[in-house]
Amino acid sequence: MFLRRCLLAAAVVLGTAAAVVAQPTARFIEREPNLWLETLDWGGQGPDVLLLAGLNHTAHMWEDFAPRLLSRARVTAFTRRGWGASSHAAQGYTPGELAADVLAVCDSLGLDRPVLVGCSVAGAEMALAASRRPGGFRGFVFLDAAYDHSLIAEISERAAPPRLPRPTREELASPQGVGEYFRRTRGYALPEAEVLALHAFTPTGHLKDRNASPLAESLIVAGMQPPPFQALDAPVLAIYAKPTVASLFPDRSAFTAADLAAARTRVDLLREMLAAQVAAFEAVVPQAWIQVWDGANLNLPLAHPYKVGVVLRPFLDSLPVEPVAADSLG
Questions:
Q1: Using an 8 Å Cβ cutoff, are 39 and 26 in contact?
Q2: CA pair distance 81, 85, nearest whole angstrom
Q3: Residue 285 neighbours by CB under 8 Å, 6+ apart
Q4: What three-state secondary structure class fits 244?
Q5: d(CA 103, CA 92)
Q6: Helix (H, G, I), strand (E, B) or coil at 50
Q7: Phi, psi dihedral angles at 230 (to 5 degrees)
Q8: Which of 4, 36, 276, 284 sits a CA distance of 20 to 30 A from 179?
Q9: How far is CA 318 from the centre of its chain?
Q10: Model-level pTM?
């Protein structure tokens, strides 16, 4: 019924994506002495929604997507420590510490039982936040995030992904070129603000370096552990991207035969893992509305913003105003 409602709503929301893009207000919250987290606030009408970026992204990844929700919610986002304008701390990257950052942002911004919407590794932070604050959230939306991401390392040991193509000289010469490199090699376009947040450029516009802690990614990956999804005590929407070689490796022009074989093996392993993860998630989160999108890009809100919006808006409309008893969710 939920999916049918989403499809019926599609005709109603056709004009929403063409709405004038709202510009967010940026502010910084002091997490602890000398540690600041960047937040973005788009305003909007309705319950609070907090958007959580995936690994190697900032709050600015949501700049083109967030306006799609403003008729349903007050929308905010924040940049995880270690990236962009947030402090590049030397520590604090365990799942528990990152979940504590999520709760601190909610408290500092005065968010009232927000809906958490997260990509990729943010799923673990969402589950841990729920375990530490029962009844504290109105709902949860996992955008290819309802995984035990510690299993990815095992897949990489068995089938390492082929190297991405190197950027061309033109792609290194400007922020627009860097954005084109992402589109060519990842299969999605970055908002210009996200390109600028993730990278440092010379005065002439040439790419200089990444704007991220050199330790953050490796520390997060090393600390991954099975998330406590059983702690999710509110309605849940989980969308999974079922990869193909085309969706995972958009630019295969320079692949050797060995590269292509490795890519196919990796995709086969990821699809096997997805089936097991969906079944495991459904078993411990019986109230979840689950969709699996075959052939979708793993970065759902950047690669498929319209389709995500079509499903997410009715989910937000369906959420109860008051907390729901845990035994009534299943």
A1: yes
A2: 9
A3: 146, 229, 230, 232, 236, 238
A4: coil
A5: 14
A6: strand
A7: -65, -15
A8: 36
A9: 22
A10: 0.91
Question: Is there a contact between 315 and 287 (Cβ–Cβ < 8 Å)?
Answer: no
Asked if residues 54 and 119 have their Cβ atoms less than 8 Å apart, the reply is yes
**With DSSP H G I counted as helix, E B as strand and the rest as coil, what are the percentages for the chain, rounded to 5?**
40, 20, 40
Query: Please, are residues 221 and 215 in contact by the beta-carbon 8 Å criterion?
Result: no
Kindly report the CA angle at 128 between 213 and 58, in degrees rounded to 5? 35
For residues 186 and 165, what is the distance between their CA atoms, to the nearest angstrom? 10
Q: Please give the structure tokens belonging to residue 147.
A: 């995984």
User: Which pLDDT value is given to residue 254?
Assistant: 87
Using DSSP, how many helices (H) and how many strands (E) does the chain show?
11, 10
DSSP lists the bridge partners of residue 236 as: 140, 288
Position 19, amino acid: A
Whether the Cβ atoms of residue 257 and residue 283 lie closer than 8 Å to each other = no
Contact status, residue 294 vs residue 304, Cβ threshold 8 Å: no
Reported as type and span, the H/E element at residue 289 is: strand 288-294
Other Cβ atoms within 10 Å of 252 Cβ, number: 14
Per-residue pLDDT tens listing for the chain (330 residues) = 444 444 344 433 433 443 456 799 999 999 999 999 999 999 999 999 999 999 999 999 999 999 999 999 999 999 999 999 999 999 999 999 999 999 999 999 999 999 999 999 999 999 999 999 999 999 999 999 999 999 988 898 888 899 889 999 999 999 999 999 999 999 999 999 999 999 999 999 999 999 999 999 999 999 999 999 999 999 999 999 999 999 999 999 889 999 999 999 999 999 999 999 999 999 999 999 999 999 999 999 999 999 999 999 999 999 987 666 555 565
